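Quick one:
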Amino acid sequence: MSLKDSFIPPPRLLRFLSTSFFFVCIFTLFICQNAQAKTVDPSIFLGPPLGETIILDGCDGTVTKRTTTAVSDTGVYSIEERTRLPVKEIKEGLFKGRNARIMRGEEDIVDNYTLQAVEGKIVITRCNEAETVVDLLNRKWTHRGDDLSGNYFEIQCSLVGEKEKLIHGKKRKVIYVETFCNAGGYAVKSVYTVASGLGIIHYEVVDPDDPLVLFTLKEN
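Output:
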């Protein structure tokens, strides 16, 4: 075939390019719509529902009751968690007042925070500090941790799995998050589970020698 035979006349070339561009646009639109269809609205993972309480059991006998006390017009959930330590005797004079009652399992530790869905993320705000719990769009993110002595460190998070499970009598979307940080010279890996309509329902520190479940949802 000569160079002349392989030459495409301008009108025909224009029609060819136009047709190709059309199919590229259709294919791109299909991909985008398919991706959007799979994108989950993060607000479904906020919870529990207003006025309802779920119970989280700790590995050391602690019991946490999580209640949504309010939901704003903009979808901000106000959450209260009350954690009760197991009843036990403590050394006299080691703690005083309310702290002593908490350590004896006579009074709750109260934690108040808010949850909201923002641009594909679930954001928790506690003591005026906001951190990302889940990022459904990027699937990888970081947030800040502290060792309770004023030292901060970076926590790397990754969304590693999604499925549907029957939890508390309902089929729910469940996502799994892995975290990794270096705190005080120690490498710490943990995983947590977030369920639609309930929030975080399971949290554990991953250690091949001594795994530690911080809390897990109590079944009905």
